[in-house]
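sanity check this:
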Amino acid sequence: MELSKKAKSQRIKHHFATSDVWNFCDTNAAAQIHALTELKEMAHGHPVYGGIETMDDWYAALDKMIDGWQAVLDLENWKFVPGEYGKVRDACEQRFHEGMELYVKFYWSLWD
């Protein structure tokens, strides 16, 4: 979707546009997925706590964080099927909570 001139100006000035906050959970999830994916691709080290002993452990933790944010978008973009929403919502919420547990645990280690 093409941004309006107003939205582009707002993003330059404030780092987000008013339209970004209309459904901030999606905007934030998409930004987090992008940032965590970039971090994973350029990682040169890993935390030395919380069960992370190798780069593979760190990549697995980052993948869980990414999947947690992806669950937000999956639920938001899910096509309604009668009788299925509760199961889909529960599965997405479980993925989200698992990812966020790691996101909070390693928040101060999200740098490279």
About this structure: The first helix runs from residue 5 to 14. Residues 65 and 102 are 6 Å apart (CA to CA). The chain is about 65% helix and 0% strand. Residues 24-109 form one domain.
